[in-house]
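Morning, I've got a small favour to ask if you have a moment. It would help a lot if you went through both lines with me. Thanks so much in advance, here it is.

***
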Amino acid sequence: MKSVMSLNDLPWLKDVSWMSDPSSARLAMWVGGWLAGLLVAFLLIKSVNYRMTERHLVITLAGIPVRRIRIRDIRHMDTEPRGFAERWYNTLAPSRSRLVIHRRKGWPCRTLIITPKNPFGMMHELQKAKEKLKAAEASAGR
C-alpha cells in the first residue's frame, strides 16, 4: 500500500532556521518582491488591448479604457518609429508588430506606438475609418 506524503516527510520545509537570520529574511523578501513585480508587469503588458469605435481608437488596460485617440486626429501611420513616442505594447517582442501613429495634435508627444497582432490590417482599418469620417463630414457640411 502506498503511503501519503505529509509535511513531516519534508525536513527542509520544517527547518526554517535560516529565516531567523535578518539578512536572509531580507534577501528572501527582496527576491520575492522582484518576482511578484515581474509577474504584475507581465500581466499588465498582456492586458493591453485595442479596439476601434466609429470615431476613436480606444486603448484598454484590463478592459478599462485608458486612452482614446480620435481617428480624425491621425495624420499618418507607419511601422518604423522615429524619435520619442508614447508606447502601448501588449507583447514582449514589440519590434515584430509595431504600428506607429502620428497625430496632428498632442501633448507631450504626437507619436503613439501600439502593437496589434496584425499591424497592416489595423492600419488598413484605421485608414478606411478615416476616409469614412471625411466623407461623413463632407456630406454633413453641404
User: Anything to note?
Assistant: The first strand starts at residue 48 and ends at 52.
